[in-house]
Design a protein that fits this description.
By secondary structure, this protein is mostly helical. The protein has one domain. Helix content is 64%, strand content 0%. The protein contains 2 helices and no strands. The radius of gyration is 19 Å and the shape is elongated. The two termini are 23 Å apart.
């Protein structure tokens, strides 16, 4: 807290966090839905390679798409 320059006031209550927790839950459900949609789209398209490609290669391609779409974009905001 010292490094982030956060100073607690002592008036924080758990009941004040319900709205933030609900929005966080909604955001997590939305993220899971988007990932499942991407999973469905990518595995049914030719972006995952021809049908003769092994599952390990398809998994590596899937991981690369997730890395590019979620990890790189969200962590680049810290760098920018």
């Amino acid at each position: 807290m010292r490094l982030a320059d956060v100073h607690p006031t002592g008036n924080e209550k758990f009941s004040d966090m319900w709205g933030q927790m609900a929005l966080n839950l909604l955001a997590n459900i939305l993220t899971a839905g988007v990932i499942s949609l991407l999973f469905w789209i990518l595995f049914s398209s030719t972006l995952m390679g021809p049908s003769g490609v092994s599952d390990a290669i398809r998994g590596a391609i899937w991981g690369a798409w997730l890395w590019l779409g979620f990890v790189v974009t969200s962590s680049s905001m810290d760098v920018i």
